[in-house]
From TrEMBL:
Transcription as UniProt keyword: yes
DNA-binding region boundaries: 132-231
Residue numbers of 4-aspartylphosphate PTMs: D54
Entry-linked InterPro entries: CheY-like_superfamily, OmpR/PhoB-type_DNA-bd, Sig_transdc_resp-reg_C-effctor, Sig_transdc_resp-reg_receiver, WalR-like, WH-like_DNA-bd_sf
Transmembrane segments: none
Keyword Phosphoprotein included in the entry's annotation: yes
Superkingdom assignment: Bacteria
Organism: Bradyrhizobium diversitatis
UniProt keyword terms in alphabetical order: DNA-binding, Phosphoprotein, Transcription, Transcription regulation, Two-component regulatory system
Chain ranges of the Response regulatory domain: 5-119
Entry protein name: Response regulator transcription factor
Stored SMART domains: REC, Trans_reg_C
Positions of the OmpR/PhoB-type domain: 132-231
Length: 240
């Protein structure tokens, strides 16, 4: 049985020790880092299943590091730790590919809940969709078991875990108008705040990436309603 390994990145020694002890008590393996350079070293030499990443680090910004990892096509899920009132950091973090965020100070139990939720999304998708086939829409093929999207023009579309989860939510409910609250519940497994802009950010990112591959107007914004997938969806390779 694979035991997920969590990389905790924070420049505060006491916080690292506290989180390492608590995360280990919850049944995970833990790696620690205090600098951006150490993160790259840990990723190169260990199998990391999720990164808990502080935004403020001594040799650079956690936001820049997150952007660099996504640019290098790393799909390791990332949970950002941000100052409680720094909403701009949270939005930017989601824009550049973070899967979730948690404001400081926080209860370690909430961090564990977020870690489990992010890891579970990937596991649930692989098991639940393994025999259900792929989705065809606007010339794109989305494969839930491989968590991949291939475009009609430019080949593979690089999506973060959160982006793929959101796309899959729409593909499973073609034509339905989904509110922000519904999307937060379906993709993040927890109650959402109607003022939370994370869904808007993810929609914007998906629109941009799909448009760059030749598909415009995939998502329709419904006034006072939410969002709707405007493309026809065909199910491929379905098994009875």
């Amino acid at each position: 049985m694979h035991i997920p390994q969590i990389l905790v990145v924070d420049d505060d020694l006491e916080i690292r020790k506290l989180l390492a002890r608590y995360i280990k008590e919850q049944g995970f393996r833990v790696q620690l880092a205090s600098r951006c350079a150490e993160v790259r070293e840990r990723i190169a030499t260990n199998q990391i299943d999720l990164i808990v990443l502080d935004v403020m680090l001594p040799d650079g910004s956690g936001l820049d590091l997150c952007r660099d990892l996504r640019s290098a096509r790393s799909r390791i899920p990332i949970i950002l730790l941000t100052a409680l009132k720094e909403d701009v950091d949270r939005i930017i973090g989601l824009e550049i590919g973070a899967d979730d965020y948690l404001g400081k100070p926080f209860n370690p139990r909430e961090l564990i809940a977020r870690i489990r939720a992010v890891l579970r999304r990937g596991e649930d998708d692989r098991s639940a969709h393994g025999g259900k086939g792929r989705y065809l829409f606007e010339g794109f093929i989305a494969d839930p078991s491989a968590r991949s999207v291939v475009g009609p023009q430019s080949g593979s579309i690089e999506l973060t875990s959160a982006e793929f989860d959101l796309l899959l939510t729409f593909l499973e409910r073609p034509g339905r108008v989904l509110s922000r609250d519904q999307l937060l519940d379906l993709t993040r497994g927890r109650d959402g705040d109607v003022l939370d802009r994370s869904i808007d950010v993810l929609i914007s990112r998906l629109r941009r990436k799909l448009a760059e591959s030749g598909a415009n107007h995939i998502f329709k914004t419904v006034r006072n309603g939410g969002y709707q997938l405007a493309a026809k969806v065909t199910y491929l390779d379905q098994h009875s």
